[in-house]
Amino acid sequence: MMKESDSPIDFYDRLAPYYHLIYPDWEKSVARQAGHLDSIIKELCENKTPHVLDVACGIGTQSIGLAQLGYEVVASDISPKEIECARNNAKLRDLNIAFSVADMRAAFSHHQRTFDVVMACDNAVPHLLSDAEILKAFEQLYLCTADGGCCVVSVRDYAAMDLTNTQVKPYNLHQEGADRYFLFQVWDFDGPIYELSMYMIEDKRNAECAARVMRTKYYAVSTDKLTELMTAAGFRHVQRLEILGRGEFFIQHAAHVEGDVDHVGEQLFPEKRPNAPQPERGGPFRTLDRH
């Protein structure tokens, strides 16, 4: 049983004011990720500018970038504090994005409509700690995906990683004016479940530094298992796309389209649930099209 302090809501509520510090340059990351996603969406959706649903929007990293490119975006996240930050970030850029608080396991129950593109980026899905919970989320994402639409998910490629013992992972040294922020993670494994502790040291050039730690848990789920679960949820043409980078993330796309679509998830980001669908509409998780 997870402690309350380990819940994703608590973790991201506490991280929200500092989330941008994870990136060397958050603004550049917004533009870069939007460019990658835009190229994938244009390939899948051809000539139309689709309506996008981001079910794990965080502070708006992907939603804002796509909105700046002209996409119509609706976005939700489980963290109220991150939604507050996302709204502020969008307002500063004069962007009209409908943000709301929702769990991806209840995405269709919450949004009550379909979208051409549904996405969950930045390793959000592995916060669900069992195959059953992931399947519940994928079933909801399937119901949110319009016929001919697609679903994009980015996750860590856990199969290529060491999943044992305790690991220390330096993350970023961020400078804001005279202040420095040093971020690093500690991963503690217990089988396929691991606790991630995000440490942040704030140096205001005084005699002492301030330190914070935020903890949450992840399921080191393989892409093969995610593919299986996405297919079970109803998606078709599920594939994995690869892009050169640090190799920590890839995007997977699953189709809900009529006809054959050949697409795959990818390593894009080298830096961060109701009734089952009708059988005729789909299968598991790897790629973006929904069939």
Word description of this protein:
There is one protein chain. This protein is an alpha/beta fold. It folds into two domains: 4-158 and 220-281, 3-Layer(aba) Sandwich (Rossmann fold); 166-219, N-terminal domain of TfIIb, CATH 2.20.25. Helix content is 27%, strand content 31%. It is built from seven helices and eleven strands. It has helices spanning 8-15, 26-45, 61-68, 80-92, 107-111, 131-144, 223-233; strands at 51-54, 72-77, 98-101, 115-120, 145-156, 166-176, 179-190, 193-203, 210-219, 236-241, 249-256. The strands form two sheets. Strands 3-2-1-4-5-11-10 form a seven-stranded mixed β-sheet, sandwiched between helices. Helix 2 packs across helix 3. It is globular, with a radius of gyration of 18 Å. It starts with 7 loop residues before the first helix and ends in a 35-residue tail after the last strand. Residues 1-5, 244-251 and 257-291 have low confidence and may be disordered.
Question: Short description, anyone?
Answer:
The chain is built from 7 helices and 11 strands.
User: Can you summarize the main beta sheet?
Assistant: 7 strands, mixed
The counted number of beta strands is 11
Domains, number: 2
Average pLDDT, all residues: 82
How is the largest sheet built, in terms of strand order? 3-2-1-4-5-11-10
Low-confidence regions: 1-5, 244-251, 257-291
The top level CATH class name of the largest domain: Alpha Beta
